[in-house]
Amino acid sequence: MTEAETMPAKTPRDKTPLSGSASKTLPQRLWGNAYLLLSLTTLMWAGNAVASRLAVGQISPMGLTSLRWVFVCAILPWLMRRELAAHWPALKARWFFIIATGTMGFTAFNALMYLAGYSTTAINIGILQGAIPIFVLVGAFLAHRTAIGPLQALGVFVTLLGVMVVASRGDYHVLTQFAFFPGDLLMILASFFYAGYTVAIHSRPAVPGLVFFTALAIVACLASLPLFGAEIALGHGYWPTPKGWLILAFVVIFPSLISQICFLRAVELIGPGRAGVFVNLVPVFAPILAVFILGEQLALYHGLALALVLGGIFIAERLGKR
């Protein structure tokens, strides 16, 4: 999963009458279809999990993390320069919040996910991201004392059980001997970071979503440079291969830019609550992409884990809120 997955936008819903829809061009109709935009968004975020595996040996983890935001910041701040200037007082007043959330949600999450790609599968990375909504529920309770009902607690337990099934590869000996794959543990840690980011941004500055995203991207760029420098200093950095540059281009264009624009537009159309539900498609799309693009094999425990993760989310987010 990557960046503005659960970022709320503070813009009114689109109330354009349907009567004029027949005269709209195809691009206009697509731009007004929130469900298509959200499906494409989550597909691109799932592609980021696949990119973490494709990047192995092609571009280093910290190189991908840092260069991703370097290229984003070579484009987006310039395009948003007037909006950034207009909202600078509001951003400056919350400078520590912006630095903390940008570092946690954009830099740390992606760095850990790309590092995890070296020692686990894209299927596991995708399914483990499915636990983020549950971690958000727990984080909201810890940070804001948001009440958790019995069904929501059951949903948390079921989802965490699914996480343990993935991390243990369905083998209880892994649990008893704590012999987890490093990549799975890194992805669980990454999910905690992103959940913390998601809880935090509910109190973000009152600025447009794309302005806030641009500010976080700048922070992520600056915060990732020391990681890239440390990787090079330790002898683990290397120049991207031609395939590595293609992977970087995909990550910059799709998960980093187009997906954010699509998501923010969808939030304008149907609101953040309904749009946020689509984040749950990431653990569905990621295994499918991993099988078709990487040739990874789905095991029985993957199906069980996915059922537990999605089932836990349904119990917590749907049944638990009735």
TrEMBL record:
Membrane topology: Multi-pass membrane protein
Transmembrane region(s): 34-56, 62-81, 93-116, 122-143, 150-168, 174-194, 206-225, 245-263, 275-293, 299-316
GO cellular component: plasma membrane
Principal subcellular localization: membrane
Pfam families: EamA
Residues in EamA domain copies: 34-166, 182-315
Superkingdom as given in the UniProt entry: Bacteria
Region entry Disordered, spans: 1-22
Matching PANTHER family: INNER MEMBRANE PROTEIN YTFF (PTHR42920:SF11), OS03G0707200 PROTEIN-RELATED (PTHR42920)
Name under which the protein is recorded: Drug/metabolite transporter (DMT)-like permease
Species: Bosea psychrotolerans
